[in-house]
UniProtKB/TrEMBL annotation:
It comes from the Eukaryota. GO terms for molecular function: serine-type endopeptidase activity. PANTHER family: CHYMOTRYPSIN-LIKE ELASTASE FAMILY MEMBER (PTHR24257), CHYMOTRYPSIN-LIKE ELASTASE FAMILY MEMBER 3B (PTHR24257:SF22). SMART domains: Tryp_SPc. One of its GO terms (cellular component) is extracellular space. This is Chymotrypsin-like elastase family member 3B. Residues 1-240 form the Peptidase S1 domain. One of its GO terms (biological process) is proteolysis. SUPFAM superfamilies: Trypsin-like serine proteases. It comes from Gouania willdenowi (Blunt-snouted clingfish). Gene3D superfamilies: Trypsin-like serine proteases. Keywords: Disulfide bond, Hydrolase, Protease, Serine protease, Signal.
Length: 240
């Protein structure tokens, strides 16, 4: 369904020569996205975007100054995990009612099976279909690892360092990659818990093939205003 304009104010559009992926504003000059989105040399981010086909006025366009891809990312193996990247912007975004920083989860905050989360983006509306022109949202409940790792679901492709959500008729689709998995915390706030990583190759809305996300909380490290991606061998099973 179409999202209410600017209701996910940390959502950004990542563009090279055209929109390629989504992302999340986590600091005025830092954006979180998926490693598999980074294939070109030059990128910009668009903030306060809603309708791709219109210049609506509040958009901010900022070039990417530096790209940091997870050191263990392997672009020949998306299902190996570590699909996360950080983008440092050339200048700070202007924070206003349409551009906000995402809330990041606490390290020990566990997601629970069926916890309601939304995936957002301008990706394809269905497999092989057109890309959305306005920002879309889809309700994707979290799928616990005990379910996601079942052989008729994702099996061993669902590592314990990943988060699964969805698996019914709704999912992320091509073009949503890198965007946020927005989950409501007990305090009523929205937290960005994951980065959209992959869907089933046979189609976006394949039953028992939930969208797979890179969890944010075990992958980010903040150090005096700078962020780095952390390589963690520690099992993240406790998170779901």
């Amino acid at each position: 369904q179409e999202a209410r304009p600017y209701s996910w104010p940390w959502q950004i559009s990542l563009e090279s020569f055209f929109p390629t992926c989504g992302g999340t504003l986590i600091a005025p000059n830092w954006v979180l996205t998926a490693a598999h989105c980074i294939t070109f040399h030059t990128y910009r981010v668009v903030l306060a975007e809603h309708d791709m086909n219109k210049d609506e006025g509040p958009e901010q366009f900022i070039n990417v100054k530096k790209m940091i891809i997870h050191p263990k990312w392997n672009d020949n193996c998306v299902s190996c995990g570590n699909d996360i990247a950080l983008l440092k912007l050339e200048k700070n975004a202007v924070i206003n009612d349409k551009v906000q920083l995402a809330c990041l989860p606490q390290q020990d905050a566990a997601l629970t099976h069926n916890q309601p989360c939304y995936v957002t983006g301008w990706g394809r509306l269905y497999s092989g279909g057109p890309s959305a022109t306005t920002l879309q949202q889809a309700l994707l409940p979290v799928v616990g690892h005990s379910v996601c790792r079942q052989s008729d679901w994702w099996g061993s492709s669902a590592k314990t360092t990943m988060v699964c959500a969805g698996g019914e008729s709704k999912s992320a689709c091509h073009g949503d990659s890198g965007g946020p998995l927005n989950c409501k915390g007990k305090d009523g706030k929205w937290y960005v818990e994951g980065v959209t990583s992959f869907v089933d190759g046979r189609g976006c809305n394949t039953p028992k093939k939930p969208t797979v996300f890179t969890p944010v909380s075990i992958r980010l490290k903040k150090n005096s205003g700078n962020y780095s991606v952390v390589s963690t061998e520690k099992d993240a099973q406790a998170r779901v």
